[in-house]
């Protein structure tokens, strides 16, 4: 078979494998935060992302060391693979949008943003949003490992900066799949539908674009970045992770166990007759401190490869800025409608939107 044809269908095959593993491997049923649109009951999710990640990576290495599939295969067919994922993402998005009634928005808006809020299949064993994030995360990890293998094959060693970048991205994936239940309480699940933005975004954009720093520098030699500077980049990444993970975990504990302290922080709230808002800890620093954490992590990843003069590496943190600033504005509007006067009181207490003392 032509290598380009095989490359085109490689993501289709990998996505099918991940889906089968997700469906058949053991998982935990977790009650989420979102309610069913018809019954009003809280949706349940079957989660096993970390196990799926481990098994998929194990299969990938066995295929590589068995000389069945080269370990750098995803690098070798990167462009045809991207084309295959692009088409797969569009086909999925059409399939999940077109058969369902309009939301009242324009056709293009429905196609991009979606019509179904929380689609689940196979008696709830597969939730569309969790499946999409699982596909994107696992495929991203396979790309990272494959590109790293290519760099080693080309130079006979791996630069410390590339090792650091790989470690950061791998930790990013592992962390997300280890705390799947926490993300059931994030903006995506209660405020977004499934269309091209989430569907194509997770199937084609997420697993290919997030490694842009590695993609742009994988064929460049070791930049000899000083060790102390690499340590600084690692600390910067951990700072961003602490803000993002800490904020999400504090929110999770507050939603599930309102009176429980988190990292020694006893919840401080404001409330009216029906609603309560958290106003201290991470959520006292800014109204979207987790967004700042995501941007800081992305910046550390861009810096770690040691080629700040390569403009492509900066697309990753710039993407987060472009994604999260409009999301913050939209989320503030949604909260203002939902919480009314309580939100105005909250804004007075927590003045900053994302960056404490600046914005």
Folded structure, characterized:
With 359 residues, the chain is mainly alpha-helical. It has 2 domains: 1-219, no CATH class; 223-359, no CATH class. 63% of the residues lie in helices and 7% in strands. The chain has helices spanning 3-24, 49-65, 73-76, 78-97, 107-113, 128-155, 160-178, 180-183, 187-191, 199-209, 212-217, 227-256, 282-285, 289-304, 315-339, 341-349, and strands spanning 28-35, 42-47, 120-121, 126-127, 269-271, 276-278. The chain has a two-stranded antiparallel ribbon with strand order 1-2. Strand 5 and strand 6 form a beta hairpin. Helix 14 (289-304) packs antiparallel against helix 15 (315-339) and helix 15 crosses helix 16 (341-349). The radius of gyration is 21 Å and the shape is globular. The model has no long low-confidence stretch (mean pLDDT 91). This is DUF1295 domain-containing protein. GO terms for molecular function: Delta14-sterol reductase activity. The chain crosses the membrane at residues 6-26, 47-65, 77-98, 131-152, 158-177, 198-216, 228-247, 295-315. One of its GO terms (cellular component) is membrane. Belongs to the ERG4/ERG24 family.
Annotate the secondary structure layout.
Layout: H1 3-24, E1 28-35, E2 42-47, H2 49-65, H3 73-76, H4 78-97, H5 107-113, E3 120-121, E4 126-127, H6 128-155, H7 160-178, H8 180-183, H9 187-191, H10 199-209, H11 212-217, H12 227-256, E5 269-271, E6 276-278, H13 282-285, H14 289-304, H15 315-339, H16 341-349
Antiparallel strand pairs: 1-2, 3-4, 5-6
Helix pairs in contact: 1-2, 1-4, 1-6, 2-6, 4-10, 6-7, 6-10, 7-12, 7-14, 12-14, 14-15, 15-16
Transmembrane segments: 6-26, 47-65, 77-98, 131-152, 158-177, 198-216, 228-247, 295-315
Subcellular location: Membrane
GO cellular component, one term: membrane
């Amino acid at each position: 078979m032509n290598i380009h044809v095989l490359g085109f269908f490689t993501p289709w095959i990998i996505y099918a494998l991940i889906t089968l593993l997700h469906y058949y491997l053991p998982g935990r049923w977790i009650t989420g935060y979102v309610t069913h649109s018809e019954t009003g009951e809280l949706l349940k999710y079957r989660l096993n992302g970390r196990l799926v990640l481990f098994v998929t990576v194990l299969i990938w290495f066995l295929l590589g060391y068995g000389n069945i599939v080269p370990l750098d295969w995803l690098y070798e067919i990167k462009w045809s693979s991207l084309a295959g994922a692009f088409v797969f993402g569009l086909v999925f998005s059409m399939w999940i949008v077109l058969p369902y009634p309009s939301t009242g928005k324009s056709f293009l808006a429905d196609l991009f943003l979606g019509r179904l809020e929380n689609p689940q299949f196979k008696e709830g064993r597969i939730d569309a949003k969790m499946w999409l994030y699982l596909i994107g995360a696992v495929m991203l990890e396979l790309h990272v490992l494959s590109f790293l293998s290519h760099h080693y094959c080309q130079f006979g060693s791996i630069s410390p900066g590339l090792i650091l970048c790989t470690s950061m991205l791998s930790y990013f994936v592992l962390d997300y799949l280890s705390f799947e239940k926490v993300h059931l309480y994030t903006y995506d699940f209660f405020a977004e539908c499934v269309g091209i933005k989430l569907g194509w975004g997770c199937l084609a954009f997420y697993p290919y674009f997030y490694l842009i720093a590695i993609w742009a520098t994988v064929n460049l030699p070791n930049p000899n970045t000083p060790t102390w500077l690499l340590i600084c980049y690692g600390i910067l990444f951990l700072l961003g992770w602490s803000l993002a993970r800490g904020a999400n975990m504090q929110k999770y504990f507050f939603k599930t166990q309102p009176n429980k302290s988190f990292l020694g922080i006893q919840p401080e709230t404001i409330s009216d007759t029906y609603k309560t808002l958290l106003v201290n800890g991470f959520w006292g620093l800014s109204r979207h401190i987790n967004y700042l954490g995501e941007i800081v992590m992305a910046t550390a990843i861009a810096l770690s490869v040691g080629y700040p003069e390569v403009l492509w590496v900066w697309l990753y943190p710039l993407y987060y800025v472009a994604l999260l600033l409009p999301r913050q504005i939209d989320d503030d509007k949604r909260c203002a409608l939902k919480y009314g006067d309580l939100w105005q009181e909250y804004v007075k207490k927590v003045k900053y939107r994302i960056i404490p003392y600046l914005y």
